[in-house]
Design goal:
heterodimer, A: mainly alpha, two-stranded antiparallel ribbon, 13 helices, globular, B: mainly alpha, ABC transporter involved in vitamin B12 uptake, BtuC
Amino acid sequence: MISMNIVKRKPLPHWVRIVIPFAAVVITLLLAAIPILFAGGNLGKAYSSLFYGALGNRFNLLETFVKSSPLILTGLAVAFAFRARFWNIGAEGQLFAGAIMAAVIGIYFPGLPPYILVPFIMVSGFLAGGLWAAVPAFLKTKWKVDDVVTTLLLNYVMIHLMGSLLFGPLQAPGSSWPRSSAIADAAHYPMLIARSRFHIGIPLAFALVLIIWFINSKTVFGYQSKGVGINIRAAAFGGINTNMVILKTALISGGLAGLAGVGEVCAIQYHLLMDISPGYGYTGIVIAMLGNLHPIGVALAAFFFSIINVGAQTMSRMAGVPVYISGVIEGVALMVMLIFLLLSEYKIRWKRS
Amino acid sequence: MIGEIFTVTFITGLIGATLRMSTPIILATLGEIITERSGVLNLGIEGTMLFGAAIGFLTTLATGNLWLGVLMAALAGMLLALLMSVLAVYLGLSQHVSGLGITLFASGLSMFIYRLVVGSPTIPPTVTPFTPVAIPLLSKIPLIGPSFFNQYALTYITWILIPLVSIFLFKTRGGLRVRTVGQNPFAADTVGVNVNLTRTLCVVVGGAFFGVAGAFLTLAQQNMFLMDVIGGRGWIAIAMTIFGNWNPLAGAGGALIFGFLDAFQLRMQSLGVNLPFHVFLMIPYLVTILALIGVSGKASVPAGLLKPYRREEKGG
């Protein structure tokens, strides 16, 4: 009988920690070769079409940036919450809250000039997502209700809320589909690069990466939320109002996810519809873990996922591998990364007994 | 309109549909209760159900054998559950994240395999699904007969499983072992119970339940595989586990309420009653959240839930 023991190891040098995510990506692509070969795809052709499809020319590259922005925002949202051990599984619902807010304002305030309307929508969408996230945070702080479950359940409450709006007051006149009227032109995000969908939300997402990084590492609040995450009792003993920290964390986290929803309405769809998000909120959880909850890591992980998502379309056309390979690759990437992170802190010892 | 709603046919139909629609949720809830009682939260449930739905459907599509489909779905669920155990039990990785990773991976894999096997035809392929089995004599009782005793075989099996799981957990040595491992793994280890093996067995049994719950949707309730066939039922089972205070009878009761509201709103829609049905669908989630507030602090959460067991960290 062989038994396994997991024991702590000495801290690894700093460069190893930076190499780990890249090594994880390489291992992931090696493992993903199995289903690709299984699908009868030619590996060289599959991977070259994957990367060409995502990065190979101007249009593809810009499209990869476009697709990365909601992932960066939901990834940041989750990472920011998880860092304080607020288990926000609800970024999907918070994204919908932001999207609903964007549609409502974009439809009902058509007269405002763009330089007022767009920021107004952004702030409102941020608040909508943030307040929606504050509900489970309040339940957690007030009555110790499990946040994993409440954030998850509130996603469905929000989906059905959106459904009742899209089959009710927000439904476009004369339409039988759950789809709203178009938002005003003045509510559209400005496009920054001609002949592409590269909109103002993309640099905004990258700016938010830096802002969150700054909050995390340079502000008192960042220090407090980390303290709450590491040891909430010690943080409380040290004089931190832990409930307030969790509520503020939730507000920011949900706000970031809300902004992702605003971007989808104001820069991509220009309508509110039921499938406004293909699960960005859930993917955000994986991205946050893959990025090791660090904002820069989140941005890199989100960009990697965007490469996989955009490139998989081309790979499916060129190499005949079903496009759903992207979900498989993302799932594998997460598991590999988790195992690598474990191995960076612990050693596995096998014992014969 | 009111007359139409309260006919005997309507009521028997509604009860029948409630039992039918709650079946996959009850199965998944039972699986999650066994899993969580041993100290593991398996958020891989949603993806595992989809994988069971896909593998069960494809097996039946290829062989025409419905029960072989159910069996393969159970095995498929166990396979993913085994992966979950490696990550969350043996390696001791975060249960939240491992589970969500399994769901992401399994969802991608299910659709990938489905596409590989069936390609992309314009009309999705279908199987001849399970037909309800009328129980002799009992199904002839007025009102009760057609609604309770004219169900799918899997629904009957599910109803038998509810007390069985309850008896196992609370009345057998094996169940005591499971609960001890979930409650106090250090104590269990001291008296010679293999904590990680017990947890793995529970996770794997739970996985079989998830797989069959998924297959029920593609082989009985419907006859085809669609990407959104699970539609959040796995997450509902997670909620029902807590709602039912980790107790199989109460969890199944919660799932039944869920099935009822779903069946009721569908029937209202088909009668053309203009209800805001999305508001209806919202109710169970809101009720569950209220119930969670009600039981908070009093809930008998397995104390070892979410905590990986490592001997070196004794007492930690």
